[in-house]
Amino acid sequence: MTYPTYHNLIGGEWLPAASGKTILNVNPADHDDIVGSFPASDAEDVNRAVAAAKKAFATWRLVPAPKRAEILLRAGILLQQRKEQFARDMTREMGKVLAETRGDVQEAIDEAFYVAGEGRRLFGQTTPSELQNKFAMSIRMPVGVVGLITPWNFPMAIPSWKLFPALVSGNTCVIKPATDTPISVYNLVQTLVDAGLPAGVVNIVSGSGSGAGSALVEHPDVRAISFTGSSEVGSHVAQRAAATFKPVSLEMGGKNAQIVLDDANLELALDGALWGSFGTTGQRCTATSRILLQKGIAAKFTKEFVARAKALKIGNGLDESVQVGPQVNKSQIETSAKYVDIASTDGGKILCGGHALTNGDHSKGTFFEPTVVGGVTHTMRIAREEVFGPVVSLLEFDTFEQAIEIANSIDYGLSTALYTKDVNRAFTAIRDLEAGITYINAPTIGAEVHLPFGGVKHTGNGHREGNGAIDFFTTWKAVYVDYSDKLQRAQIDNAE
């Protein structure tokens, strides 16, 4: 069997891992389809990449921000031209259907155009000084070399959320793509290179979290880390980065609730629930994992929702008629199966699905049925722990206030949705739901690049991507220009 071999990008050169070890990138819908071989990098490779980024920073930081932005603009145009091929590559390596991988590439295009505009908007502040003949201002400065650790579920969109604002801010980057989905990062970075990005400004080090990720987090010349992944790994990253005083941006797990009130447009709520629960095969941090149903509509909603879930077509995402692709690997299948067993043991009722698909067209992939669990209470593990698969729980409530309490009763706080025609309750939910994102009459998925993205509690540590990313990838410098031609002592000479 022949397949392409890819290398790390370090200082503008494509280099194999120093150890010579590799990892195969396998299509989760068809294990006979090998997307390519990628380096299994370790600390030696990371050291070389960081050194290249540090060298490139000396000149990249001096490129005017509008000129840096022009490269991103050109990259966005190239991504438009390459969208279909990149989407097909992503479906092969990650599994989600073509409609979604096209959307993933489109999000990178949107991010390129949005951040390109920020090249002329890296605003600081001017402010009056407390002393005469003294000028005061603040300016944004690049952080330096930044490490980016990205997940497999949005293998081009999320890297673009990190790379583009980091670059327009004047930083240089070392990115470690997810082990399951490296080719999408390679496609993205190659596009930046083709758009004119200088050698060493972005470096790719492929490999595992333990082999390459930890070395990147702990490297003394890496000034900041941006991480997207599980809360468990994110906690580990934050603790290791703290030893060298690195700021860390963490975007982690979710257990997102869609609340449906008795007065909701039920057809709209069903459409949103189906898309939010089973889009990307439930493998989104914003996926709808809990559906909270007011008792007046619970029976009707449940019957129709289960029927729709059963009717979804599951298969290879390259088939345009398929609605739900595979899970990304065997481990994710095992996790979904484990939580179905936990739900059953705790008293939940499996209304549909609940099993891996292993026969016929599904025999060569990692497929799991769309699964709906009824009879769930908010204290059950299935209602509190992230599954990251096509498994959704149905919970019933009496009052709007109970729904808010149930939605907030978990450790996560990423995305929430409320379906209602009552504007008062809509605004109350916006105020009271403990989440970084709230949708009214829309599903829990569908964030746009120009709004802040992130969450509270175990979902994140306060930083935001989207329009909050520039804040993370820049640091403030206060500047004072005294033109009095004499010594002036702030807080002393003006004390009276």
Present the secondary structure layout.
Elements: E1 8-10, E2 13-15, E3 22-26, E4 34-39, H1 43-60, H2 65-94, H3 98-118, E5 125-128, E6 134-142, E7 145-149, H4 157-168, E8 172-176, H5 182-194, E9 202-204, H6 209-218, E10 224-228, H7 231-242, E11 248-251, E12 256-260, H8 266-278, E13 288-294, H9 295-311, H10 330-345, E14 349-352, E15 356-357, E16 367-368, E17 371-374, E18 391-397, H11 400-407, E19 412-413, E20 415-419, H12 423-432, E21 437-440, E22 456-457, H13 469-473, E23 474-482
Parallel strand pairs: 7-8, 7-10, 8-9, 10-11, 12-13, 12-20, 13-18, 17-18, 20-21
Antiparallel strand pairs: 1-2, 3-4, 5-6, 6-23, 14-17, 15-16, 19-22
Helix pairs in contact: 1-6, 2-3, 2-5, 3-4, 8-9
> How many E strands?
23
Give a quick account of the main beta sheet: strands, pairing sense, barrel closure.
Answer: 7 strands, mixed
Q: How helical, in percent, are the residues? A: 25-40%
Summed over residues and divided by their number, the pLDDT gives a mean of 97
Tell me about this structure.
The chain is α/β, with parallel strands linked by helices and 496 residues long. The chain folds into two domains: 8-252 and 460-478, 3-Layer(aba) Sandwich (Aldehyde Dehydrogenase, Chain A, domain 1); 256-440, Aldehyde Dehydrogenase, Chain A, domain 2 (3-Layer(aba) Sandwich), CATH 3.40.309. It is 37% helix and 21% strand. A seven-stranded mixed sheet has the order 14-17-18-13-12-20-21, with helices on both faces. It has a five-stranded parallel sheet with strand order 9-8-7-10-11, sandwiched between helices. A three-stranded antiparallel sheet has the order 5-6-23. Helix 1 crosses helix 6 (209-218), helix 2 (65-94) runs antiparallel to helix 5 and helix 8 (266-278) packs across helix 9 (295-311). The chain starts with 7 loop residues before the first strand and ends in a 14-residue tail after the last strand. The relative contact order is 0.13.
